[in-house]
Design a protein that fits this description.
9 helices, 70% helix, mainly alpha, 184 residues
C-alpha cells in the first residue's frame, strides 16, 4: 500500500491517478522497423525464453545452490561461513532485475501504466500465483500464473465476484497444498 500511495501521489513522475500513457511498442529495427502485435509477441516470447533460461542457469550455478541451502537451513549456512546476508541481498537484486524487465515489457504491451498495478489486489494475485504453483520452483509460478489467469478470464464472464473465487482458491491452496500443487 505504501508503494501504491507513492505511485499515486508522485504526479510529476508517474502521472498520479492518470498514469503514464502513450508508451509505444518497440520497433524491430533489425527486421526493417516492423511494428505490430505479431512482432511484439515474438519479442515477448524470446524475452520469456531468455529469462527462463537465465533463471535455470542461475538455479544450477553454485550461487543458486547456495541460495537453496540458505532457504532450507539458514543457520547451517551461516555456521559453514557463508555470508547469508550478502547472498540474500544479491538474490533480491537479481529478482528485482527480472521483475523490472517484466514490468517494462508489461508497459510496452499495454502502452499505459497506472497506479492500480501496484494496489493490494494485484500484489495478492501475484502471491496467489506463486503459492498455487509452488514457491521455490521454476515451473511452479508459471503454472500458477497460467491457472489463475485462465480462471480469472473464465470466471469474470459469469460473475463480477471473481475475486471471491480467487480468495477461495487461495484458502484451499493454503489448506490442502501449502507448498503448491507441484509439491503435492
Amino acid at each position: 500500500m505504501i508503494v501504491w500511495g507513492v505511485v499515486n501521489r508522485w504526479i510529476s513522475l508517474t502521472g498520479g491517478d492518470n498514469g503514464i500513457s502513450g508508451i509505444p511498442q518497440p520497433a524491430l529495427t533489425w527486421m526493417g522497423g516492423m511494428q505490430g502485435t505479431v512482432p511484439f509477441y515474438y519479442i515477448i516470447l524470446v524475452s520469456f525464453c531468455a529469462a527462463a533460461f537465465l533463471m535455470f542457469l542461475l538455479i544450477r550455478s553454485p550461487f543458486g545452490k547456495t541460495l537453496v541451502a540458505i532457504r532450507d537451513c539458514e543457520s547451517r549456512m551461516r555456521v559453514l561461513g557463508y555470508n547469508v546476508w550478502l547472498h540474500k541481498y544479491l538474490a533480491l537484486i537479481i529478482a528485482g532485475a527480472f521483475a523490472g524487465f517484466a514490468g517494462s515489457l508489461y508497459a510496452y504491451y499495454n502502452g499505459f501504466v497506472n497506479p492500480n498495478v501496484a494496489d493490494l489486489a494485484h500484489c495478492m494475485k501475484l502471491v496467489l500465483m506463486v503459492s498455487l504453483g509452488g514457491a521455490g520452483t521454476l515451473v511452479g509460478p508459471f503454472l500458477g500464473a497460467s491457472v489463475i489467469t485462465l480462471l480469472e478470464n473464465v470466471i469474470c464472464i459469469y460473475t463480477d465476484r471473481w475475486v471471491m473465487v480467487l480468495a477461495l482458491i487461495y484458502i484451499l491452496t493454503a489448506k490442502y497444498a501449502p507448498r503448491g500443487v507441484l509439491d503435492c
